[in-house]
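Input sequence (131 aa), recorded before submission:
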Amino acid sequence: MLVTLFGILVCGSLFPSALGRLHGGLVEEASNKGLDYITSHITETGRYNEPSAREDLWYYYKLPLTLSLGGRLRDANLVLNHIKCDFMQPDGDFRTSPDVKSSIPGSLEYYQYTNSWIQAEKLFSSMVASN
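Predicted structure, token format:
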């Protein structure tokens, strides 16, 4: 579900006026509804407490960019901070726990994928903050 929302949110956030005109505003409306749903489940400490989500790196690694592109910078920074505090290991790797990258089957096949996303999101966040 998060991947589908990510696609809608990115398209709706990057091209709101063009897609809004082409689709009668439905994509932008869907994007905003998705963002509203996601942000309603982000706590003040950046934890994502959506009922089907687990406290697992896999449920977090794309959230900051999704939120940033949708203009929800405060929530994006809360989630980034949560990722740093709860998933970053002493060696700089991001893992759900010291011994587990993620409990999601197949996540080990893309071991560096989550780290790359998190680093890109940190970079994006710092670029936005500096402007």
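Checked by second reader. The chain has one domain: 2-130.
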